[in-house]
Fold these 3 entries.
Entry 1:
Amino acid sequence: MAVTGPFVVFSGIVFVIFMLGLHNFLTNNEENGCEMTYMFEYPQFVRVSLPVDIVRRYPRYGLYAYGEGHMTERLRQMKFTGIPVLFIPGNIGSHKQVRSLASVSLRKTFSSHTPFHFDYFTVDLNEELSALFGGVLKEQRDFVHRCLHRILALYQNNENKPTSVVLIGHSMGGMVAKGLFQDPSFDKSLVRVIITLVTPHKSPVLGLDSFLAKYYDSVNAYWRDNRRAGSEGNLSHVTFASIGGGHRDILVRSGLTQMEEADVNVLSTAIPTVWHSTDHLCSVWCKELVFVIVRTLFDIVNLTTKQVSENVQERNLVFHYHMLQRTAGKRFSASFHPHTVYFDYNAVWKENIRRQFTFHEPNGIVTETHIMIRLLDDVKHEMLAVEAISVEDKDWVFACVADIVHSDVRMCQSGINLSNETKFLPSRELQRKFVYLNLAALKRRSFTHVILRVKPTKRMFQFNVDVHSSSSRHITASLPKWVSFLSNSAVLDSTVDHAVYYEVALPGFEQTWQAYLLHIQPQDCHKTSHHAVATVVVPWSREDVHVHITESIRKPLRLRLQSPKPSLYNSSDPVKVTLVLDPQCKYSVRIQSGVLDSLGQLARFYTPMVLSYVVAILLLALREQLRTLVETGQCVMFHTAVGAGAKPYYVLPAVRLGARILGWSVLLKLMHPLLPLPDLVILQEQNLDFLLLSLYLYAVAYGTVYLLGLGCWLAVIFSGHTAHKMAVRFLARSLTGTLTLSEWAMAGLSKLPAAVSAFLIALMYSTCGALSLCVGAAFFFLKLCKMYEEYLEVLFKYSLKLLASEEQQGVSEEQQSSALEGDDINEKDATTLTENDAGDDKSQDNAESETEAQHDPDTGDKADTCQTVKTTVSVANIDDSDESLSHVEVAESSDSNDYSFSELHFNFSAFLLWLSVTLINVPCVLVWARNYRYNVKLEPDPSFETSLVLSFCVAILWQGKFPKPNLKYYQWVCHSLYVLAVVTLTYAPLSLHHLGPIVATALVLIMLHQLVAPASEGNLSVGN
């Protein structure tokens, strides 16, 4: 069978494409635009004492209070008078990450002279791998629960003692905060506000163990069932905000941070005045984001009680103002815009009849000024876009009826305030506000003018006004195909003169794998300095992305989605790009396919799923090896088995069909208690599946398996001796013995696999199953190296035997020619001489066979078989005898080598499966090592059952000659491996913790078959 083929080449190409996408995903992101927060005084973390029983129960954890400067001494005395805030760190997170929030909050207290302040507490959770090992989440949740009671106990003697604690969770700390409410003993009134930063709410980033999956399922189900008002365990009193990081966060994709039950779901790129993407750690120190969070906390305080307001609607409005739709100043109180405003008759009133104009005052004004924009029954006067630069007034745009005349000037007596329609624009320098009004709708309400008001100021300000028809500024762009990625498609050749606003709709831009580049190029600028901003608006998700277009910045706007269009989304509003332009320039707009960004999106969303496809391909390769063992009596090499037995059309149609059947609602309800929801159905519900996804991931995994097998083979060939030496030295140090003793120990272990299995089981019971898997993988590798060395020895002996046979054949031919030429030798002497020579040859061959059998006990049976064959060789004719002898030896040696090499091929495939399971359970080893000083044994241990089963299996499979070619029911084993491969791709792409039991089941089936299956009729003997 050929090792390479068309699909191998195709998979290699796809693998290279995947690596390009992975590189794009990891490296091609926007620069970090966040400013660093700094402490004005040295930060101090004061440990808060806990009851003895809590300390004994949770020795790894601790509770701290944050302080700076002179406040630290008061904290050491356990004197707290503020509003408690508890920070919960996440995966490998430090309790010291609270310092940015706490320090900024402290400085705001001083600068704002507020009659209250916040006390920041933080929990030390030992920097555990809570995102990869779910066994610690329940323990962390219980510890935080007890910390809340301890924090509130510190305020018992205060006059205005708090009754609740604000929770801020970073990463997995947000899931710990959510899990508190699931505890039946938890008083839900203890928490009214939860803010989570880059927390994966929907599902784990990597579902590596069952404890993590169960925690997510139970917590999310609890919030889903109890969030609505009137439900049992009502959680409607909680204000919940979830903040994602955007494209810079390569650890937690922002789509996972969205929580349907949250009051605010937003990415940092869409938060007014932040507008920057944050990486996973930056979110706790990004100055712009920290400022917004601190302002929000200060605005939800009731000034009467000096504690967090109990009015949930008021709190939600504050969060909405600061994080979604800020219209005015930094305080929520500034968001109140009076409905009716009365104007000053003595102010300056100016009416400009042009549809596009700029009102610019470089030195400010001394008199209040009103700019009047007339409303007309004209389609060209349908919409109004106004960009206000450096206008600080919160109430600045109104609609009115100009029905009075004062000093020969037409003016309005009062107007309706439209300032609540204001949006803040991202800006490189000056503050920019924007409003977009429907003049036709205002005209139908009998208004005659829109008023732009500016109060006296010494600062420069500017209005860019653009009155236009809706159809002229709303453009629908046809998305380019992948095949046209080298060229740009024109969306707009040139904007109209003095245009301020355009809107580009992108229908069909709904999937996460789609990516485009929008090029906005300035043309014919009338001044050197200019500024424009383009914003991507996704109607079903708050994930706005911005780009500036200035004289020095000409980067394209990268169009990528963090969340696909929901399957139940009932609106026809497409993704759109809003362009707020500089009226001093014209602009061209072109769109291009972002092929590398598309590949990067595939890597962002689907890379974790590749591992399940790798395991499925390994199972199919093992199935192919067993199938060829039945047909030919030998296992083919690993790469041949992959090339011949792991074609995608063998398994992918069955996976698709099975997932569709299991996804039927009726069948799903019947089988829900028995079978979980297939991962493919989950992907379809999240609208993350597409037609070629399975083939793409299969090809990537195919290339991965091919390279992994090649790398492991090279390691066995070139590193086997080095690995053996390292193992011997490790044993010498561990057993405090000599290298010779260690060599004997290694030899004994290789001859007694049951002893190794017993050691692995003992190690698993005393420490953790994952450590047993790691040690077993190391021994498995050494065993492969030893098997390869034995094969080379057999091959070397066979080569020497061939050379000896050829030399004997040459000597016999010389003797025969001499006998024919001698006329004086009689027939009897010639016959005697020939028989003696044949007897000597036979004796010499028998001696060699006996020597080989004694030297290599594993091939002794084969040598006996060969010897029996040799005794049947006729000695009547030396030519026939030598020729037959040579053919029998070649056949015997070839069969012997094939059989020993079959064992090596089989164990190589089993080793790769073992390695895959070990990789999944590496976090368990890391957690065990980190907590070793607290507990020698890992509890709970999600790797225990899988490790136990695999350790028992190898105790059998590492002994004797496996697999045996002469057994019945191989076809049933092959069918079972095929079914397991289908199950892997159905239930494990997202739930990676299913891979361990699947691999264990496969090896158990093979072990039981090798032990109990009867011999087949017409046994395939080794020597045949």
Entry 2:
Amino acid sequence: MDSLEALRAVLPLTVPIPSPVTNTSLLNPNDIAREEDLLRNPGSLQAWWTAIQTAKEQAIASQKNQALGNPLLGPLASPTSRTNLQRLTYMFESALVHFPRSFKLWKAYLSMRTYYVLGKATKQKRSGARKKYAPMKEMIEEDEFDAESWEGGLDGVVGWEEWKALVGVYERALMWLPTMPRLWLNYLTIFNHPSLPSAFSKTHVRRTYDRALRTLPPSLHNRIWPRYLIWAERAGGPTTVAVYRRYISVDPSMTEHYTKLLIEMKRPLEAAKLLLSLARKAARGEYESPEGKSPYMLLGEWLDVVEAWAEDVGLDPDEIKPEDEPEKKEEEKVEPVSSTGTLMRLAGPMVPADGSGKPVETRPYDPDEDATNPQKLNIEKIIKKDGLEMYKDQAGRLWTGLATYWIKRGEFDRATETFETGMASVLTIRDFTQIFDAYAEFCETLISALMDELASPEDDEETAETEAELDSRMRAFEKLMDRRPFLVNDVLLRRNPNDIQEWEKRVALWGADDEKVAETYTTALKTINPKKTTANAHQLYVNFAKFYESGGVEGQKPKDLDSARRVLEKATKVEFRHVDELAEIWIEWSDMEIRNENFDEAIRVMQRATAIPRNVKINYHDQSLPVQARLFKSLKLWSCYVDLEEAIGTVESTKAVYDKMMELKIANAQVIVNYASFLEDNNYFEDSFKVYERGVELFTFPIAFELWNIYLAKFIKRYAGTKLERARDLFEQALEKCPEKHCKPLFLMYAQLEEEYGLAKRAMDIYDRATRVVLDQDKFDMFTIYIAKASATFGLPATRPIYERALQVLPNKQTAELCLRFAQLERKLGEIDRARAIYAHASQFCDPRTSADFWKAWNTFEIETGSEDTFREMLRIKRSVQAQYNTEVSFLAAQAQGAKKVALEKELATANTDAMAQVEAKAAPAFVASKETAPVNGQENRGGNADEIQIDEEEF
């Protein structure tokens, strides 16, 4: 190992700046031509850059496969690397004399110098690009993840001069290019090197960061602050506090992170005040947590700090003043305003104003939110004001937190008082359970401590006092356990006396005590307000009635149906919030009578419930009317009634109930279908059809469409062709008001009826009507069906007028497809010229790149039936159509459509093969070189068609 003096002897290398005058080894005979060229063209940046890049490549080549030297020298361990550094420094410095503001030169120069001092930089791979306006916390995490590390590097003690020279070069670069953020970032990066000299480790780094923030515009500060904050955290102590205070004054989003650092540095008072300030600002809407924390979550973190550092954060009990005393003293200090003179002078600080002179609302100074103020906090006052008054749903956590604070300070009596006050004021069972569990744990811990103290007595007098206190604590604890169910019940009823579910839970608490259960039900029915109850208010009355019906909780007493009826009778007079609740009362009453086999009574109950008043023009949804006045229009009640009549009533009574439902106009489509099905099951077919007719009159489309479908199907099934004229009238009536999108199935059903039982000509007329009425997207299908039916009935010639009209109506794409069929028809009929004319007509709609099937069909047609002239005419038309479609938009559309078609064909072909064939197809190469060349133009194709017409392209 070389001595320190020997290592220092080879350094410095760049101080002063090397030149051929002082170091002749920097130039060799091969560099003379380059130097002369640079002397002739000193203002050519390209020439300088080419020379530098050539020198860099030579340096890289010369440093390969070199043996490692002393690790303290890092990249400068070998003489070659030291010479290369001097040579590159000389060239860069010479170039910068002429181009001092070239960012390209400075960046390359600094990268080179940084490599020879810091070593080879290795950087972790970033998963993605940084967001433009990312939160500071994410930016810090990204910078920590992407932090550079180095392999080797020059020791800070041995290479002090080189380190200092590197810093000097960066300072010079920033003097010429002060607003280049990349230079600042590269400069700041060197301060993270493990071999950084101690002279640059603290003060110089802080001042450099400050200069960067002062120099760069505010829009670029978000590139400096993440590294500054990371460095400040590593520095620790007052530096961290000073830097973070500066930053959060500009951007409070890092305050939460700063509080965690303060806790780690054991500065809980400052952390607590910052968290309290954030919680208050978030509650006022002035702060939004970057971590998505709510105002209560921030207050909870403040409470955690208070519990952990009770002595350091909170005021001593002796220092806490009564709540009204400070206000009274402030009022005494204020002097009354004099009204005797002409000038009234009001004391007070200046009020800030905006540009228009209007005062800006500002909040008074609060020492509880000032992190620099050493005054401690009044914890109890803050919890009551900022916690319990604002977050009533989190009262349990706040009360237990306050009690824990007093326990940590040794104030057990105040902790007990806090627990009792909390249990008497909370409104949720969750909060109560939280407080009660903490209270019980506190009592157990205190009793355990007193018992441990009695186990090792020191004084008889103190032992007696301890035993008395232990007995008192034991009695209080036992009493607390006995009070628990009642305390829970008080919480539930205090929260909401109209909560039906909680009243049911209260009934369940009494278990098998029938007297208490009945008493609880009676009290509940007297207490609740039906207009303010929660859901299912009727359930309380129903359960009370079932209690009497079943003979108590366990059913040991005889059934008391009279009491159950009285409860339900009373329930029918209650003004519930919804009509369905009253309907449930009547339905449950009817079910109770059925369970006890009082069928006639069940019918009478439903008759009472569905009694129709004189004024039937009542709006069911009118909330201003009582539910009793709107009950007769409850579909739920009538549905139950009709089900009951179908089960135990007669056909006539059931029909009467259905008729009343339709008269009241409360029947829906399902009721219509059920009524008709009921009549059909009882062989009242004509009556069922009348029900359908009434239904289609009540409802409009699309509901009427479903009824017509069922009605017409039932009618045809019943009468077939025996009542053809009536069936026709029904179809015409259905189609009269049917919209376009629903009429297609009706037309098809109508035509099928005529085909099976009527006249073929009428069926064709129906198909013709359908092609004129249905939606445009359905017309092609209708024409296809029409043509098929006409061909089967009247022969192929009868389809010509249909084809001709279809070609006038359908869009271009469908017209082309229909023309192919039309041409095939004409060919079958021997009309070759008509078929050729149809092909020529359809060609204008068919792009040869997307409609290859059409042109292939025409080509086959001309080969089989045409002549050389007709074939040439076909080719001429094809070229003209292709030229017509030869635009960029149509070409892209053709490409997309062609690719889609190829993919579809491939998918269909794959679906028709077995599993192994599909696997082999996937494994096959995408391209296979051909072994046989295509025949040259004019060469005979021995495998071709002998009758094929040979036409050369030059002939056109």
Entry 3:
Amino acid sequence: MGKTWRSSSQSPLFWSGQAFRLILSFRLPTRETWRCPGPGWGQSQAGGESGQPLDQESGAGESALLSVYAQLDFAHETWPAVLSGPLTLPAASGSSAPVTLTGLSLTTECKVNQDGCSYCACLSGYQWNASVCSHHDPCQTHLKHQPCGCLVFSPMEAGYCQLLPPVPATLSLNSWLQMPGSTLNLTLLTSQETTNMNWFLWRTGSPSPVLLWAGTRVSLTSSPGRAVLSIMNISHKWAGEYICCFEAQGFRWELQQVVRVPLRETDVTRLPDQLSISCATSPGFQLSCCIPRTHLGYMASWSPREGSEAALVHTADSQCFGLAVQHCPTADTTYTCDLQSPGLTPVRVAVSVTVIQDGDATCPEEASAVAWNVTKAGHVAQAPCPGNRTGMVKRACGPDGVWGPIHSGCTDTGLLALLQRVQLLRAGQGWPVTEVPQILAQLLEQVVVVASPSDLLALVHTMTVLAKVVADARIQLNYSGLEALLNTTDKVLDMDSGSLWTPARAQKPSVGSNLLLAVEMLARSLCPQDQPFSFVLPNVQLQTQLLGPTSPADYRVSFPTQPPLRAWIPRHSLAPLSRNGTNVSITSLVLQKLDHLLPSNYGPGLGDSLSVTPGLVLVISITAGGQVFNQGEVIMDFGDTDGSPHCVFWDHDLFQGKGGWSDAGCRVQAAGASPTTQCICQHLTAFSILMSGHTVPQNPTLELLSQMGLGASILALLLCLGVYRLVWRIVVRNKVAYLRHAALLNMVLCLLAADTCFLGASLLPPGPRSPLCLAAAFLCHFLYLATFFWMLAQALMLAHQLLFVFHQLSKHRMLSLMVLLGYLCPLGFAGVALGLYLPRGQYLRDGECWLDRKGGALYTFAGPVLAIVGVNGLVLTMAVLKLLRPSLSEGPQVERRQALLGVLKALLILTPIFGLTWGLGLATLLEDISVVPHYLFTVLNASQGVFILLFGCLTDRKVQEALRKRFCRAQPPTSTISLTTNEAYIPEQSKGRSQDAR
């Protein structure tokens, strides 16, 4: 009996006499043992193994498919006519009858390029086996997910595709339509043993599929005959064609399933999301709703659309449905963009349009970097970000029709795309080993485009997520990758503090801590083969050493920083790590200019923000056997550190994840007489030292003294007000006395309110977002400044009386000028400080309801105070000279003694008031001085109310006379001269007449 064979040509049409290879397959009866012909049939190594026995003795009544390989040579480009009909082949060894060939078809198609290499692709039903695939490059290297369909052969090689057996697996999913937020499950059931299994996702619009790995959203599980891919919290970014590639039966297989995910309202971008328009200036306008590209087809419609035209605009990664409204509506209107896809619930987003009517308050049109149209008061104007930036620029129109500050949400498109790429990588899209070096190289390119706080936040966030990817996937960075990281870090640390870091910290306080953590994690991932490694930049210095497993010596490292820094780890800390014969890798990293990046957060026992943190941080990490060790004794020397230092490290978990300085596990070791601080810590992390720029004694005695002194001051000021209530009409009978006591009374009121507010602020919970704390700081700032400005008003009044004896201003005009100076000027300083430093996050001191020193807000108080003290000093000097050397017109020489007594009394009154106390207080803030001035300042500051009561009120002769007249029935007459004015040199009669004239 003959056997029917079906044959297929294996090679391409190798024209001009080159050989065709045929694959011959046929059915054989059972109970016969067949063996494929051996190498004598022209078997090529590229075609796979041959000569394997096929024994079917156990399957009675069955047949088996057998493939036989042969090589036929043709001299022409066309098939010979003899191959068009049935062919009879001689009987093979062990066969009882000849075999008839009934069909012949091509299996491989090749193209030969100029260098003679053949690009050979298998036709339907045939494929290269896995062994051939592993030894030849694919035709398209970027499509490595594809099974072995097309390979490149050298001129001296040839190969043949093999007939594919039935697919040994099925791929199923729980639903092709996944709702956002649900979990996708893809299940592969196999009937054969599988190896080298990988999952890919080909997203819509992507040039090639990406490999999936076990990231934060991807779960990969496998068991015999079963493999499951799970995607948690799915979104439209996970829609596309899922591909499972694996090897079985000597072939590489590929199974696909398409998954679609509907859009949510949050996936739709409205441009703008609200609009305020004046029909007089803008008769028409345009609205748009944009969606990302997806497998689902969406149709959009706008309502209402009377007098409007809708249009579809495609961009690189999205499609926008625009509505051009040609006629302005007569009233406020809400426009709705309705997105529909067959079989799905419509997605609707609304855009409210407010029409400006006659008489409405508006903000005028303004042209700057962004064109601002006329906007109704109380609404927010929006404009798309200019240039190659993504986001919106917003500006509020105040209730009074005044434009507010511009709030930019613009981020560079390249930085935003890089951030989204690394976020998807951590979620599970992409192969970290190849993606991480590429992202690091792009970070170095993108760091130069950072121009706004949003850019800086996106860059730091990208580095943070990338560091987590490296840690999760346990990737080791090569030399070029780490070099790109360090260069990027150096440029980030060098960015401007005022325009970038300060507003970025105001938006996200933990941004500096996040940057430090990211650099720590990435720096310790250097590949051991690239060690030792040294790198020096202005703000970044790194040294790595690889210690052998045989009893490592002490680890020592030094950095030529300012202050100088040395560190070493004793051998007894390193010995346990190398007991298993593994190498120990130690990385030391120094970062500078961190003082304006990290928040002033201090853990228990470290005081408050009066501590000054140098911008230098040392990071040490130890890796052995692929594991990172955080415990071990490390000794550090920080040079040039006079003062009271604390050895600290940055704890990323403090203050609700914002990070803070802690001294747990660290101590200061005495270093003799040299200005060097030696720190010994029992763990490895980011180390530094805290220097007390203002050593404030933290003891209960000083705090109690301050509280008691403030209480006494408040009581004294209240008593002073009571005295003035009793004697006011008696002591203000002339202009000079009236102005002097009016100034003193306002000083009493301001200081009383300031001390009360300051005492109450200590009971409030501090925080940059606390309204009460913010109000208390503003009031204290204003009231203390008002106290000083009334001091200045009193001094200027004294100077006017001494210099312009015969050209005096009226009492009411003088008082008006003093009120303006005493209240309006300090209010202006306090308001400017609030508006300037609060948006930057530099107004309040961390942990207190008082002005921040580091940000500069405190200097809006210190500057005016120092200026007033200087002016008052000049006035005192002039007053002394004027009273000691009066002219002939100012009075007779016999009154010189009374003038000297008046100068002495004026000095006793004015010296404490004119800034002695607060001058000492400012010195304690700005200078590194001993503990004694802090005690003096506390006592004097708490006693200012007592000084005013004693020297400004009770020691005044007229006040004493008024009190005696009120509380004593009989009193001898006295004649006194007021030592606080220069009117003692004018005859009483003429003085009265002059006063009446005024």
